[in-house]
Amino acid sequence: MSGPTPDLAVDLHLLDPRLAGWGFPRWGSAGAAGLDLHACLDAPLTLAPQGPAVLIPAGFALAIRDPAWCALVYPRSGLGHRDGLVLGNGVGVIDADYTGPLMISAWNRNPAGPGLVVGPGDRIAQLVFTRITRPAFTVVDTLEASERGAGGFGSTGVR
């Protein structure tokens, strides 16, 4: 898929030869932020409703190397909303210095039902690359009060 010149060069090591046949690596559309991740399973896997999260191999490893970048693993929107397939860890963070196999923590959030079946090659998550900012911290004795103050969760209202 052609597009703008990338800001980041990442080495990609395919660990599962089926990925190439499944079309990996690819984005679902020219404007998609997330790279589709496939379930590299040998047989269908049923995730029980509210059962334990299961680690599913993504079938590849990568080397980001640049500490100004990381990758984030997110659920696919439709599968999460419509089918209940979400990540057991919320969001996965792939640090620039991690070069091991990528795993997808899959969880069926549905309260009941027959279970969610994940098949070999199913696109079950997405990988988004983003920049990292590391602030310079200054330890202080007090903070200057803001208009919001220390109101906390919901303190700005609903509307």
UniProtKB/TrEMBL annotation:
* This protein's record includes keyword Hydrolase: yes
The cross-references to NCBIfam families, in alphabetical order and at most eight, read:
dut (TIGR00576), PRK00601.1 (NF001862)
Family per UniProt? Belongs to the dUTPase family.
Lineage of producing organism:
Bacteria, Pseudomonadati, Pseudomonadota, Alphaproteobacteria, Hyphomicrobiales
Using the record's annotation, list all stretches that form the dUTPase-like domain.
25-157
| Xref: Pfam families | dUTPase
Record's catalysed reaction(s): dUTP + H2O = dUMP + diphosphate + H(+)
Source species? Methylobacterium adhaesivum
Q: What is its EC number?
A: 3.6.1.23
Which keywords are on file for this protein? Hydrolase, Nucleotide metabolism
Can you provide one Gene Ontology molecular function annotated for this UniProt record? dUTP diphosphatase activity
Protein name per its UniProtKB record: dUTP diphosphatase
Could you name the domain of life of the organism this protein comes from?
Answer: Bacteria
The gene name on file is dut
The EC class name is hydrolase
